[in-house]
Amino acid sequence: MKKIEAIIRPERLTDTIKGLKNMGILGFTVSQVVGRGKQKDTQGVYRGKNYQVTLHPKVKLEIVLSDYLVESTIRTIVHSAQTGEDGDGKIYVYPILEAYNIRTGTIDYDIEDLANKEG
């Protein structure tokens, strides 16, 4: 199993989720985050005063899936989230040693069954 963390632009989240659902990937976690990369700073105004925005709002998707789904999932995320400009984000892939089902307390060997159990 692998864990994919994708940091993307918030405005690309809906398209990315649609792409994942079309692949049959229905289980993932979404978090709002802020971060810093090559994206240029912007100017903001608060109560009539200008300030520099150095941390940009992003969305983090976390997906745990079987090894055979990793490459196609990465392609889907890139295709769905890419604008071609600085600040599009990053994708990280980590090995997962074990996963447990909290309800049953047992090891969860079939993480991709999330796609088969919706509905």
Topology overview:
Layout: E1 2-8, H1 13-23, E2 29-35, E3 42-46, E4 49-53, E5 56-65, H2 70-81, E6 89-95
Antiparallel strand pairs: 1-5, 1-6, 2-5, 3-4
Condensed summary:
The chain has 119 residues and is α+β, with helices and mostly antiparallel strands.
Can you walk me through this structure?
- This protein has 119 residues and is α+β, with helices and mostly antiparallel strands.
- The protein is 19% helix and 34% strand.
- It contains 2 helices and 6 strands.
- The strands form 2 sheets. A 4-stranded antiparallel β-sheet has the order 2-5-1-6, covered by helices on one side. Strands 3-4 form a two-stranded antiparallel ribbon.
- A hairpin with a 2-residue loop joins strand 3 (42-46) and strand 4 (49-53).
- Helix 1 (13-23) runs antiparallel to helix 2.
- It is elongated and about 55 Å long.
- The model is unreliable at 114-119 (pLDDT under 50).
Please give a handful of descriptors for the protein shown:
alpha+beta, 119 residues, 2 helices
Alpha carbon gyration radius = 17 Å
**Number of DSSP-assigned strands:** 6
Overall morphology: elongated
Number of helices: 2
* Mean pLDDT score: 88
Broad structural category:
alpha+beta
N→C terminal distance: 24 Å
